[in-house]
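Re: [help] complex structure
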Amino acid sequence: MTTAVSAPTERAEQVGEGRVGTVPRAAGAAVLSPWLDRLLARMGPFDADACMSCGICTATCPLGIDVLPRRVLRYAALGLGDQVRAAGDTIFSCLLCRACEVSCPAGVHITEDIRLLRRWLLQEGW
Amino acid sequence: MGLPVRDVAGILADNLRLRGSVLPIPARRATAWARGLGIPRGGETVLYTGSMYQLIPYIERLVRLEQRLGNGRLAALTGLARRANRLVNGVSLVARPSAAERREYDRIPANVARLLQRAGVEFGYLYEDDLYSGALAHDLGADAEVAVHAQRVVAAFRKHGVRRVITIDPHTTNMLRSVYPGLVPGYDVRAQSYLEVLAERGPGGTVSGVDEGDGHPAVVAASSPTSETSAARPGRPPGLRVVIHDSCVYARYENVIDAPRRLLGAAGITALEPEQSRTRTWCCGGPAEALFPQTAAAVATQRVAQLQAVAPEGVTMCPICLVNLRKAADGRLHLRDISDYLVSAVAPESGGVAP
Ligand code: SF4
Ligand code: SF4
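Output below.
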């Protein structure tokens, strides 16, 4: 039997430092900090950057919370730590039910990403 | 309003670190279900409960306390409770279910043991070394505590020479099969749900070759009684039709989808599919219960409505689903664990099905 395991994936192995910093930015554009994304990538197979922002996950989520999980993943991938912290309660209310994950066209490991965000929040002293 | 997440998560992680379980209960209570069943201690293959069903009456008591106090007052106490809990096991002080409440959930591991014995599976039990798997702490992201705890569980396996575990609930199955290999180097214990074990062997040798897969049927009979199994077992409720609730963890993490349907079918029970089932199952809401009880109740209420639309009786296969859906159903939908149905079909004299 195959199991849907949260094992590291090829994509996760590619996750590493420098990725966000390679994106050229227009002068005056908001500087997005890659530190959060890098930190999470070190904790485990964090792959929020694979998200295409289609919103299918949010549409299928039984909780019906606007920021869960698409925007939370986007905040994390962009390194927007304050927004991730502000969404802390929402991140902990996720059921880890994977209704979103089985529908995600990009194969993002949404529940493992959420678990890693929880770990980060607890470590942060949020 | 939810409870202060950090403090509640902290209490659960402290308990795991200090007492080996997120909700520590005395070993004599956790192992009471095995009395009189003659299960040997240890062995290469063991039935592993992870105390999940045994914990439910304690969780129910804590939830009732939470409802009595109200979230606001409880929230104010949580920080203090965390500090006190480091010194004294808070669960043993505030959650004291009655013997009848404990028996209601102790019956389920006993059902499973009887089903395995009847199918000719040889297994032991670790008694006081049958430790909680760490599932809830893992969900909360308390990874450091879970990694240490997993070493403890694996040390118990090694002490007793365990090579294979048969699990009872989806959360323990997921931890021992899919999470522990990433936490414990050299982990080589094979973990299977009893539903898979029974479906492979077949109750009375009638079911075999479990073919896991998915489909999204509408409201149709998932499995119908085979003439062979219907005729063979006296005392089975004839033509019983129940709506099936897939656990998210079994269906979407562990691919345990067909085994319960095959077992119910072989037991002469027709499993009806609700609007969302198999890999599209709708969560029971239970995972939010500890921190956001209102959220948990809202999700459960939606699921109960989906199930109720199909049949007045339902079958669950996870202790968290069972307790959360029962609470939301409030008697409008009659829910039982799958082991109750299977035991009553193969051995009606054992009194497996709750009154
Ligand atoms: S479904 Fe997948 S790709 Fe689409 S927004 Fe959600 S995580 Fe991103
Ligand atoms: S795993 Fe979390 S975000 Fe995804 S559908 Fe379930 S509750 Fe929503």
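Helices of chain A lie at 10-14, 35-43, 56-60, 70-77, 81-86, 88-93, 110-124.
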